[in-house]
Amino acid sequence: MKQILKSTPPKEFILWYNNRIPPPTIWDHLNSSDKKTLDRGDFDYSKNKLRSYLFKEQKAICAYCNQRIENDYTSKIEHFLPKKIYIKETFNYYNLILSCDGNSKRKSDKKYHCDNLKGDTEIKINPTKREYLNELVYDEFGNIFSNNQTCESDIITLGLNCPTLVNRRKQIFEGIVFDLDGNYYKSYYYRFVLIKSIVKPIEFKDQTQYVLLNLMNDFDRTICIGLLKVVNILHRFSQIISIFRNAKYYKYKMK
Ligand SMILES: [Zn+2]
Asked: Which domain holds residue 216?
């Protein structure tokens, strides 16, 4: 699971929240789509707009399983802390992430996953926080493990090892990890593939990089970890700049 770096809440979302009369209390107070016409001084916002914002923030991947998602009805705005239990967190931007549809549209496979399976269950692995993420282990056959009991339990709650997801990851890893005869490549090849993956939009990118690092010798692994750290620092730096630019919108408070 990749860490989702939350940016600042969308300006229009803050304006809608702070100016709505009466103040919003339940999720459905936020319309699904935009109003056609606006009265003067009316601040409108919608779930569609919020989804688009989260979609960009997450770079088009599901926050839990990291498979590619679409910016349409098949992806869902998920409350990490369930809104039924944590009512005050309903409109807290930092509690909102985008999840895939959990395979709910494919009737042939009933193994739901992600938000669809999690429902109102509370979990500890928060994709927006680094804690626990480093305890997830991936193998080249598409499986996810952890030695941490909490993580293992959350993997089950999210269905991250359901056949659909395991097979999808396995397909991607197999094409990279094994040659045509089913043998492992040499370490330098994995280093080459990992460096290429940094700029290439591939599905399950973090998991793929994890698997590749595991198959490298110490020398190649050290080079690649260093490179990934630099990329991460640059990414965070660009985000800090955008947070400073939006600093004036930090007035957002739950009423
Ligand atoms: Zn998912």
From this structure: 11-247
The answer, yes or no, to whether residue 251 has pLDDT greater than 60, is no
| pLDDT tens-digit map of 17-65 | 988 888 898 999 998 887 666 665 567 899 999 999 999 999 999 999 9
Q: Give 21 Cα–ligand 1 centroid separation in angstroms.
A: 35
Residue 172 lies in a domain: yes
Q: How far is the CA of 188 from the centre of ligand 1 (A)?
A: 32
Q: How far is the CA of 67 from the centre of ligand 1 (A)?
A: 6
pTM, two decimal places: 0.89
Query: Cα of 139 to ligand 1 centre, how many Å?
Result: 18
Q: Confirm whether 1 is domain-assigned.
A: no
Number of domains in the chain: 1
25 contact partners, CB below 8 Å, separation of at least 6: 87, 90
**79: closest CA among 12, 30, 15, 131?**
30
What backbone phi and psi angles, to 5 degrees, belong to 164?
Answer: -60, -50
Q: Is the dihedral of CA 117, 119, 121, 123 positive or negative?
A: positive
Examine residue 5 and state whether it is found in any structural domain, yes or no. no
Domain presence at residue 3 = no
Please tell me the distance between residue 218's alpha carbon and the centre of ligand 1 in angstroms: 32
| CA 61 to centroid of ligand 1, rounded, Å | 8
pLDDT digits (tens, 9 = 90+) for 138-156: 999 999 999 999 999 999 9
Give 101 Cα–ligand 1 centroid separation in angstroms: 7
